[in-house]
Design goal:
Layout lengths: L1 H7 L9 H12 L2 H19 L19 E6 L3 E8 L8 E3 L3 E5 L3 E7 L5 E5 L4 E4 L3 E7 L5 E8 L7 E2 L20 E8 L3 E8 L4 E3 L6 E6 L4 E6 L2 E7 L3 E4 L5 E5 L5 E8 L2 H4 L2
Antiparallel strand pairs: 1-2, 2-9, 3-8, 4-7, 4-9, 5-6, 5-8, 10-11, 11-12, 12-19, 13-18, 14-17, 14-19, 15-16, 15-18
């Protein structure tokens, strides 16, 4: 038997893991049933170590990198704004949403919203569809379509109290009012509101102009499909807001939004109420 071991030893790769050396020893000396159990336990342990749950990655903020499909564009005391693009039939990484957020779909899309430890949700979104979501979860977005999945994700860094729909289904499965736009060169309709935020849908008729009064509140604008809006503001060069374009304006600014095209164009305006109003 000693000679058998000497013959077998060169066959086993060296160095080899302790597990396989021990398994080889038991193959020679232990009953077959015990040996098979020993190997099964070892393989199960190896599989369990490899199957540890994936930790969610954060979204980028400050100098901290994050989920690579979420591209941080604007960050201040109110918001972090991301341009999101997921190629056809690809997934995001498992990532964490710590804050409430609003997303604006850019183009139609079909995705799976795979929330950690919850059933998957199949979503079919229309171009411009806008929804509010409470934070405090991790998920993966899986793009089922043959086209990129794109949106603007706006993380709201302050608590959003008393969220409610006004003239739009921003909160899913909750009722909202049917509002008729007023005739004119432009109209604005409030779709959603909280104690800290107001979301308006602004439409400019052909050759229409929307003059923003001097505001003591900061606001964000997001261009929707077909947007070709000229922005003139005091102290900065003129800009053009296209689909998916985002611009932040500080409190005290004064802007004019104009449409020089032959078709109506539209954008979303997020007005952030003063902090002292949140404490009332």
């Amino acid at each position: 038997m000693k000679m058998d071991l000497q013959i077998l030893a060169p066959v086993i790769p060296s160095p080899v893991p302790w597990f396989w050396r021990t398994a080889a020893r038991y193959l020679l000396f232990a009953p077959r049933l015990f040996t098979l159990c020993f190997i099964a336990i070892g393989l199960t342990t190896i599989y369990s170590l490899n199957a540890q749950p994936q930790e969610p990655v954060p979204l980028a903020h400050g100098n901290v990198p994050g989920e690579p499909h979420h591209h941080l564009k604007i960050e201040n005391e109110y918001v972090r704004v991301y341009y999101v693009e997921v190629p056809p039939h690809e997934d995001t990484q498992l990532h964490q949403h710590d804050h409430d957020y609003i997303y604006v779909s850019l183009g139609p899309s079909e995705v799976i919203n795979a929330i950690l430890n919850k059933p998957e949700i199949h979503l079919q979104l229309k171009d411009g569809e806008t929804h509010f979501t409470r934070g405090g979860f991790a998920h993966v977005a899986r793009n089922l379509a043959n086209t990129p999945f794109r949106n603007i994700t706006i993380e709201l860094l302050n608590p959003q109290v008393e969220a409610r729909n006004v003239c739009g289904p921003v909160i899913l499965d909750v009722g909202f009012a049917v509002c008729e736009p007023a005739p004119g060169s432009w109209w604005a309709m409030t779709e959603f509101e909280t104690r800290g935020l107001k979301l308006d849908h602004v439409v400019l008729s052909p050759n229409g102009k929307y003059n923003e009064k001097i505001s003591n509140l900061g606001f964000l604008v997001v261009g929707l499909a077909g947007s070709d809006i000229k922005i003139n503001a005091k102290g900065i060069p003129p800009k053009t807001l296209h689909e998916g374009g985002i611009e932040w304006f500080d409190a005290g600014s004064k802007e004019r939004f104009s449409n020089s095209g032959t078709k109506a164009t539209e954008f979303l305006k997020f007005t952030f109420k003063r902090t002292r109003q949140l404490k009332k």
